[in-house]
Amino acid sequence: MTLAHWDEVEKVERDHGAVRACWTFLGEAAGSVGVGVRRIELEPGDLSTPAHVHLDAEEIFFVLGGSGLSWQGGATYEIGPGDCLVHRAGGEPHTLRGGAGGLDVLAFGPRPRTGATLLPNQGTAWLGPTWVDAGAGAHPFGREPELDWPAPSPRSATIVHRDAADPAFGGVIRLLGKSAGAVRSGLNWTSLPPNEEGAPPHCHTAEEELFVVLDGDGALELWAPASGEHPHQTEPQETHPVRRGHVVSRPPGTRISHSFRAGPDGLTYLAYGTKEPTDICYYPRSNKVFLRGIGVIARLDLLDYSDGEPS
Question: What's the predicted TM-score (pTM) here?
Answer without folding.
Answer: 0.86
